[in-house]
Amino acid sequence: MTIVYEDRGDEDTSDVPVNRIRFTINGKKMVAEVEPRLLLAHLIRRGVGLTGTHIGCDTTNCGACTVLVDGRPVKSCTMLAVQVDGRAVETVEGLSGASELHPLQEGFKAEHGLQCGFCTPGMMMAAKALLAENPDPTEDEVRWGLSGNLCRCTGYQNIVKSVLWAADKLRAESS
Amino acid sequence: MYPSRFRYEAPRSIAEAIALLREGGDDAKVLAGGQSLVPLMKLRFASPELIVDINNLPGLDYHREDPDGTIRIGALCRHADLERSALLKARQPVMAAAAPLIADPIVRNRGTLVGSLCHADPQGDWASVVTALGGFVVARGPGGRRTIPIADFVTGPFQNALAPDEIAVEAIIPAPKGALAGGYLKLERRVGDFATVGVAVATESSGGKVTRAGIALTGVGGSTINATAAAEALVGQPLSAESIRQAADLAAEAARPRTDHRGSAEYKRHMVRTFVVRILSRGDGGEAAAGNGGEAGAGNGSEAGAGGGTQNSAGNGTADGGAERAA
Q1: A83 vs B55: CB contact, 8 Å cut-off?
Q2: What CATH architecture applies to the domain B179-326?
Q3: How far apart are CA B301 and CA B136, in angstroms?
Q4: Residues paired with residue B37 on neighbouring β-strands, in sequence order
Q5: What is the dihedral of CA B307, B308, B314, B315, to 10 degrees?
Q6: CA distance B81 to chain A (A)
């Protein structure tokens, strides 16, 4: 893959380091040649072309870029792409099947858990990890688990309801 | 934003990592959790030419207790591991109180305690906790290992005592002699913001008297503040309302807060006093005073409940109003 940077004339371009990495994204095996300074968020969006992962604040605050790396949520604007060598990345695109929504997506729909939708992919990925660890969370535990993800629209009420809705559905499916 | 150009190496052994650091000299940086370093590189406050990623080094993700009660935290032990640690909940109330208050849950999945000590941010929480507990950092370099007391390790804001070819591989919390109590309280405007004020208190008691005490302050000075006079005021007697008040006053005196957008210097100093009283009044004997356990909404110790309520119940709703309402 090729990533194009603006040449601001302040960096030596004669010997650009490139690392070859292998990883999976939503289960699919990938090989990429990346410059080490490429951020994971950019690898996902511009390299793989999955634009469901959003870059919001770009300063490790907002959580819109949250993806799962080996099952754990991370802020992909704050991890280098080369660091996923040998690891499994999951993005919001990996939630749904070809024809049906993931219970989290259904929950956000049923409980109106989004308005502009910008924070939603990060919220869902953080919630996915939360429910994997704690399938029956209290409202407080959901709020605590999502406290690294900012939403400027909803006031969080319906996001919390959406995650609790998904938790109920996932438990019903597995019982 | 993206960092300036650098070479990336991910060694598989500590010896290999040290050799790379030696080669890179002042232009090399160790990458562990990256939750401070990567943002700094994106802002171009740091522009290392060589990144030595230690995430693939085996056997550094532990935290464990030695038979004598010493607690050891490896360089790749994440904040989230400490937050979920049954060991800390049972044995180390001060660290157990602090772990859930570090940054936010997603950052805690990557960031490390040892990395936080190396970063030496005056607003970093772990440096205060480890200072109050009288801890150490173990460095590995070409010449072998050395164990550095935390007071000597943090040499100033964003500065530590490591040589360019040394890696901090472990933090050590010495075994308490007697019953350990204390906690960590933090005032923040919202989850993930830097501490407006953080206070770590640790006491060891036996025979009804405090035998050792440590008090350290976050965010109220140019570096982590070790409030030694405040801690000394507790030693050699049982905890009493009088000794607690005296320690709280001395801790407030040791603080060097500045008025900024997070609050006035006067307010921050007041919160130091309040937090010392609150931590010491909740724990006695060996009882744990967990930073966000015990009282509802005490998670980050807000007086008015605006900041504290945010932490425990609202998640992140009150971004900027918190400090003003709490003030």
Answers
A1: yes
A2: 2-Layer Sandwich (3.30)
A3: 27
A4: none
A5: 90
A6: 12
